[in-house]
Design goal:
By secondary structure, the chain is mostly helical. It has 11 helices and no strands.
Length: 189
């Protein structure tokens, strides 16, 4: 017996693709179920049937893998640089992450989703890198302040000075801070 994709799988995929584009273009608040359904060429009632609400659709559309690099194989003194380079790639390649950041500023569900992503994906790495694994969540939060702050300033608010920084300058400024947050033995290091 062959596993044939069901029609509902194709419909869900079209809805999610349309939702990601619409949330990225319009943000959470302005995106509507009707507009997403129109983009997916599907009846709005089907969107509601599959996802229940705009919040449910957003949660499904914002499933996001940061695709963090395996830092266990990296030289310990390159962790900060590797992460900054990685996050720059992610911010520049994926509008969904930018949409999630925008939405997180004004919507509690989106903010919670961003927290879940960072807590679930960055905290374990921080715990593995820092001298005291119990500090992993705290150190991940500190690292997040840097990468989220830069993303907000550079890609969302588009502060001229942040936008004008070259990629190399961003790396040079942020990498030492991330390195310290993730690997220093104490806060003064």
């Amino acid at each position: 017996m062959t596993d044939k994709p069901r029609r509902s799988d194709a419909s869900r995929a079209k809805i999610l693709a349309a939702a990601r584009e619409r949330f990225a273009a319009d943000g959470y608040e302005r995106a509507t179920i009707r507009a997403i359904a129109r983009d997916a060429e599907i009846d709005p009632s089907m969107v509601m049937r599959y996802y229940g609400s705009k919040e449910g659709l957003f949660a499904a559309a914002s499933e996001f893998d940061l695709k963090l690099p395996d830092l266990a194989a990296a030289a310990p003194d390159t962790v900060g640089k590797t992460l900054v380079e990685h996050f720059l790639d992610r911010w520049e390649e994926d509008e969904v992450l930018i949409a999630l950041l925008r939405a997180g500023m004004t919507n509690a569900a989106a903010a919670e989703r961003m927290q879940e992503i960072l807590r679930g994906q960055l905290a374990p790495i921080a715990g593995a890198l820092c001298p005291d694994p119990a500090e992993g969540p705290k150190r991940a939060a500190l690292a997040a302040t840097q990468v989220l702050g830069m993303a907000m300033a550079r890609y969302v608010l588009r502060f001229p000075a942040a936008v004008e920084l070259t990629r190399q300058e961003v790396i040079q400024w942020l990498a030492p801070t991330l390195q310290r947050y993730l690997t220093a033995h104490d806060a003064r290091s």
